C-alpha cells in the first residue's frame, strides 16, 4: 500500500492562511477532498495554518474522507497550557492526531526552536507518542539538533529534507547538517517537496545527488515519501512526482520501495495503533 505522508487541504474562505498571499496564484483557492478525488492513495493530512481551529477542521475532513489515515496538526507550543491543549486536540481527534507541526520556517526568529519556554511542549509531544514534524530549512538545522538532544525519544520527521537549495546547486553545507541530524536514531526525513525546489522547470536529474545523500545518511527505513499536494501542482502532477520518486528509490535502494512508500509512514506515525474516531 502506498501512503502519501504529506498532503494538504485548505479553505481560505473559512480560515486565514497568511503564506498564501505570496504563493503562486494557482494555489490561492480552496483545495479540498473533492479536488483530490483522483488521488486514491491513503494519506496523512498536514496543517497549513498556525491555528488550532484548522487542526479541528482537518479532523472534520478526515472523518468524511475514507482514505485519510491521520492528521499532523498545529498547537500553540509557547502557551502556558500547551499540555492541556494537546490533550483537548487528541480527544477531539478521536485517534486522528498523529503529530504536531509548528511552522518554523515562517517564524522570523530563526532561534525560536531553542527557546526554553518550549521545553514542556516538546516533552508533551514525546510523552503522548506524537510526532514532531519539523518544517525547517538549513538555517534551523543546528538549533533543531540542539533541541532534539534535550528530548531523547521524541520521534521527529524533517519535512521536505529541510528544503535544500537544489535550484542554486548548493549541497555541501546542507549535506553536512542533515548528516549530523541523521545520526540521531529518532529522526526521520520526508522525501517530499523536492521537485518544487529544482527551479522553474522541474529537473528530475538534479534530485539524485540529494536523494542519494538522504539514503546514505538515513538509510531506507527512515525515509518517508510524501507528495506535498497541492503545492506540488505548481511544478508537476501527483503522478509525475510519484513516478520520479519511485524510480529514484528503485535505483538507490532496491528492495525498499514498499518501506519508503508506505511502511515507514505507518510505523513512524503509529497508524496501526490509531483508534477509530
Description:
By secondary structure, the chain is an alpha/beta fold. The chain is built from eight helices and eight strands. An eight-stranded parallel beta sheet has the order 1-2-3-4-5-6-7-8. Helix 1 (52-63) links the parallel strand 2 and strand 3 (68-73). Helix 5 runs parallel beside helix 6 and helix 6 packs across helix 7 (238-252). It is globular. It starts with a strand and ends in a 9-residue tail after the last helix.
Question: Key terms for this structure?
Answer:
34% helix; disordered C terminus; 8 helices; 277 residues
Radius of gyration: 17 Å
Shape: globular
Q: How much β-strand is present in the residues?
A: 5-15%
Q: Enumerate the strands of the largest sheet in spatial order, edge to edge or round the barrel.
A: 1-2-3-4-5-6-7-8
Main beta-sheet strand count, sense and barrel state: 8 strands, parallel
Q: How many DSSP helices?
A: 8
**What's the β-strand tally?**
8
Give a brief rundown of this model.
The chain has 277 residues and is of the alpha/beta class. Helices cover 34% and strands 12% of the residues.
Give the SSE layout.
Elements: E1 4-7, E2 43-46, H1 52-63, E3 68-73, H2 82-93, E4 97-100, H3 119-127, E5 131-134, H4 141-149, E6 156-158, H5 172-182, E7 187-191, H6 204-218, E8 223-225, H7 238-252, H8 257-268
Parallel strand pairs: 1-2, 2-3, 3-4, 4-5, 5-6, 6-7, 7-8
Helix pairs in contact: 4-5, 5-6, 6-7
Amino acid at each position: 500500500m502506498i501512503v502519501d505522508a504529506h498532503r494538504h487541504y485548505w479553505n481560505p474562505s473559512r480560515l486565514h492562511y497568511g503564506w498564501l498571499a505570496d504563493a503562486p496564484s494557482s494555489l490561492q483557492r480552496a483545495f479540498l477532498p473533492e479536488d483530490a478525488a483522483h488521488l486514491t492513495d491513503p494519506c496523512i493530512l498536514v496543517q497549513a495554518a498556525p491555528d488550532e481551529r484548522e487542526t479541528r477542521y482537518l479532523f472534520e475532513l478526515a472523518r468524511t474522507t475514507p482514505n485519510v489515515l491521520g492528521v499532523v496538526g498545529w498547537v500553540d507550543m509557547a502557551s502556558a497550557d500547551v499540555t492541556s491543549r494537546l490533550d483537548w486536540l487528541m480527544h477531539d481527534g478521536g485517534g486522528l492526531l498523529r503529530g504536531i507541526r509548528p511552522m518554523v520556517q515562517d517564524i522570523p526568529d530563526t532561534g525560536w526552536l531553542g527557546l526554553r519556554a518550549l521545553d514542556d511542549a516538546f516533552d508533551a509531544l514525546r510523552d503522548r507518542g506524537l510526532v514532531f514534524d519539523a518544517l525547517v530549512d538549513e538555517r534551523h538545522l543546528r538549533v533543531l539538533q540542539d533541541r532534539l538532544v534535550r528530548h531523547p525519544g521524541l520521534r521527529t520527521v524533517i519535512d521536505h529534507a529541510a528544503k535544500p537549495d537544489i535550484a542554486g546547486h548548493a549541497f555541501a553545507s546542507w549535506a553536512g547538517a542533515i548528516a549530523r541530524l541523521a545520526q540521531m536514531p529518532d529522526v526521520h526525513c520526508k522525501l517530499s517537496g523536492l521537485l518544487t525546489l529544482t527551479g522553474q522547470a522541474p529537473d528530475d536529474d538534479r534530485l539524485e545527488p540529494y536523494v542519494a545523500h538522504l539514503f546514505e545518511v538515513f538509510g531506507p527505513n527512515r525515509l518517508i515519501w510524501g507528495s506535498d499536494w497541492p503545492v506540488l501542482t505548481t511544478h508537476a502532477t501527483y503522478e509525475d512526482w510519484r513516478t520520479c520518486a519511485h524510480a529514484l528509490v528503485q535505483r538507490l535502494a532496491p528492495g525498499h520501495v514498499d518501506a519508503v512508500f508506505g511502511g515507514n509512514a505507518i510505523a513512524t506515525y503509529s497508524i496501526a495503533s490509531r483508534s477509530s474516531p
